[in-house]
Amino acid sequence: MKVLKSLLAGFAGAAALNILHESFRRLDPDAPRIDLLGKQALSKSMNRLNLKAPVGNNLYLATLAGDIISNSLYYSAIGAGDSKNIYLKGAIAGVTAGLGAINIPDQVGLDDTPVTKTDKTKILTVAWYVIGGLVTAAVFNRLKKA
Predict the structure, then answer these.
(1) How far apart are CA 31 and CA 129, in angstroms?
(2) What pLDDT is attached to residue 145?
(3) How many whole angstroms from its chain centre is CA 67?
(4) Which residues contact 124 (CB under 8 A, 6 or more apart)?
(5) How remote is the C-alpha of 68 from its chain's centroid?
(6) How many helices (H) and strands (E) does the chain have?
(7) 19 — alpha (psi -120 to 50), left (phi > 0) or beta?
(8) Mind listing the pLDDT tens digit for each residue in 8-64?
(9) pTM of the full predicted structure?
(10) C-alpha to C-alpha distance for 79 and 125, rounded to whole angstroms
(11) Burial track 49-83 (b if 16+ CB lie within 10 A, e otherwise)
(12) Which of 120, 70, 122 is nearest to 99 (CA)?
């Protein structure tokens, strides 16, 4: 039962993260564009495997689905083990993911501009991953009591 609660909480955190990304990218030119980074990563990966990458809306939807699934699994680890200090675990997981989102793309041959364009972009990237981690912690804490 704890695994299911962790997965549900992880999904809630991933959903919150993606809602932030999708909402603010339409409103603020300095908002992180994780969607563009994801499209790049998916297209390059599929091309390296000699597979035809989706294009247009299909590429966007595939990237969004992959992002929600991977972030759900990542955030679900917050509920693993002892639930003591769950909010601290959520914050640390968020900071780690946010810093990874800023620093890893360039290291694996992707254009990191969508998440490093300005200092504001970098700060928002980390902040939104932290929010995702904290939402996960809050939902897990609530489900634990149910």
Answers:
(1) 13
(2) 82
(3) 6
(4) 24, 30, 31, 32
(5) 7
(6) 6, 0
(7) alpha
(8) 999 999 999 999 999 999 999 999 999 999 999 999 999 999 999 999 999 999 999
(9) 0.93
(10) 23
(11) eeeeebeeeebbebbbeebbeebbebbbebbeeeb
(12) 122
If you ran DSSP here, which 8-state letter would residue 1 be given? -
Interior/surface letters 109-144, b for 16+ CB within 10 angstroms, e for the rest: ebebebbbbeeebbebbbebbbbbbbbbbbbbbebe
**Rounded Cα distance, 85 and 31, in Å:** 30
Is the distance from CB of 124 to CB of 31 less than 8 angstroms?
A: yes
Residue with tokens 């300005």: 118
Identify the sign of the CA torsion 65, 68, 72, 74: positive
